[in-house]
């Protein structure tokens, strides 16, 4: 399963150009854990931190506690955290979420159509989307110093109401 996703990401990397800052975010319409469909466009007017993850992704384990805290600290200011799971099997994602609970919106894309639309280059990958639906920043991976790099960019967008 992991090999299939890695191969899919490799093929996407070769055939699809990554979405760059300054471009509109691709349309996203995916189900949540209860089967309710969420459209990214419905979040216009908010700053969106969009994260792609999978159960086998080691750095994703580190990013989830930070994303939980990010939502708690800045949700009242207009930040929405959305994570898109790319596991082929929902059970794998569910097991991950038992160990790393999410207090933010989780959507499921087992076919990786959104990964293809964004031209994903690695895992996890995150995108900061402004109130008008334009990507302002992208980040591949998650390291101990990632919050210090990403948080100021989020705060800057939140000030632009």
UniProtKB/TrEMBL annotation:
Q: Which residues form the Thioredoxin domain?
A: 19-159
State the source organism's domain of life: Bacteria
Pfam families under this entry? Redoxin
Q: Which InterPro entries match?
A: Redoxin (IPR013740), Thioredoxin-like_sf (IPR036249), Thioredoxin_domain (IPR013766), Thioredoxin_ResA/DsbE_sf (IPR050553)
Keywords of this entry: Signal
Q: Would you indicate the residue range of the signal peptide?
A: 1-18
Q: Does the keyword Signal apply?
A: yes
List the protein's name: TlpA disulfide reductase family protein
Which organism was this protein described from?
Answer: Parachitinimonas caeni
